[in-house]
Amino acid sequence: MRVRAGAGILAGTMLLLSACGSAPSDDDGGSGGSFKACMVTDTGGVDDRSFNASVWKGLQDAKTADGDVDPSYVASTTEADYEPNLNAAVDQKCGIVIAVGGLMADATEKIAKANPDTHFAIVDAKIDLPNVYSMQFNTAQAAFQAGYLAAGMSQSKKVATWGGLNIPPVTIFMDGFAEGIEYYNKQKSATVDLLGWDEAKQNGSFANSFADQTAGKNLTANFLSQGADIVMPVAGNSSLGAANVAADNGGSLSLVWVDFDGCDAAPDYCKFFLTSVVKEIPTVVSQSVVDAAKGSPRSGSYVGTLENQGVRIAPFHDFDGKVPAELKAEVEQVGADITAGTIQITSPSQPA
């Protein structure tokens, strides 16, 4: 039985984008290995500088660790591409097929059931099948820290967040961010407002796409016009629209990036990134691929947390000298309290 759950750069040497439904490309710019590790992207694309790109980096890292690994990917343009792309990977005798994102859960479960001798892995969903390894991340924990930090750094006392789609792998970030701001307000008797997300109603602002930078730009510009000076977009490639707004406004807007460290994902915009809510997807993906290549494919599930370093906030980079030492210490203590259970996060999108 499949259970949906919570919480998608440097892509290395990029593959030529494979046509949807076709066999995964095996030309990664280097000598091919004997173990095919195949990735099926979601609709954001492999070069989204966020979720898909972090999975692809994991495959590249696996190749570096084990020369037998031959990574490839096939890109999905729409959700209708998921099943044919997964089937294409199976037909190519891929040693492991990695599905990217919770939206692929139904298709992955179906194809995995039909192909019990093929090993699958999926990011941001849980599928209870013996030939599927589920990788989930409790990003609400690190997003809580980011929300506390943003509340402490906001000069206007207004911050905002928006997502790609209203789905648990997205809203888990938004929930944690909201709870971190709320905690800051309680601790400091402050009144920092959050625009773009109502955790109680599980409703807010969305681009309705992970690949629409124009929508991302419009949403961010709207929040800027309402007085927000820090924004956290959770929308893959659409989030680059927010970076464009920050660049166009001369530093009056700061951003919190997600999935990857923004300064690695989009270095041209590094000076606008207060921090990032990082999912250590590359590490977990790389380890699962290398294990599969060695004949010991993983099964069951993994949940990344602050405690096991599967999620974290990134360094402050250009903001390091701007964040007060006291606030830095408080953010670190908040993380310790989350790990200890002193602070309880209530997001309904947290992995079980």
Give the count of helical stretches: 10
Order of helix and strand elements from N to C terminus:
EEHEHEHEEEHEHEEEHEHEHEHEEH
Write the CATH fold name of the largest domain.
Rossmann fold
CATH homologous superfamily grouping of the largest domain: Response regulator
Strand order of the largest sheet: 3-2-4-5-7-15
Helix content: 25-40%
Task: Identify the CATH class of the largest domain.
Answer: Alpha Beta
Give the class from helix and strand content and strand pairing.
Answer: alpha/beta
* Secondary structure: number of strands: 16
Low-confidence segments: 1-23, 26-31
- Biggest β-sheet strands, sense, barrel: 6 strands, parallel
Give the strand content: 15-25%
C-alpha Rg (nearest Å) = 19 Å
> Domains counted in the coordinates: how many?
2
Coarse morphology: globular
Instruction: Provide mean pLDDT, rounded.
Output: 92
CATH architecture grouping of the largest domain:
3-Layer(aba) Sandwich
C-alpha end-to-end distance: 14 Å
Sequence-ordered SSE layout with sheet pairings:
Layout lengths: L1 E2 L31 E6 L10 H15 L3 E6 L7 H10 L4 E5 L4 H10 L4 E5 L2 E2 L4 E6 L1 H15 L4 E6 L4 H21 L4 E3 L1 E2 L4 E2 L8 H13 L4 E5 L5 H9 L5 E6 L2 H4 L7 E7 L1 H13 L6 E5 L6 E3 L11 H16 L12
Parallel strand pairs: 2-3, 2-4, 4-5, 5-7, 7-15, 8-9, 8-12, 12-13, 13-14
Antiparallel strand pairs: 1-6, 10-11, 14-16
Helix pairs in contact: 1-9, 2-3, 4-5, 4-10, 6-7
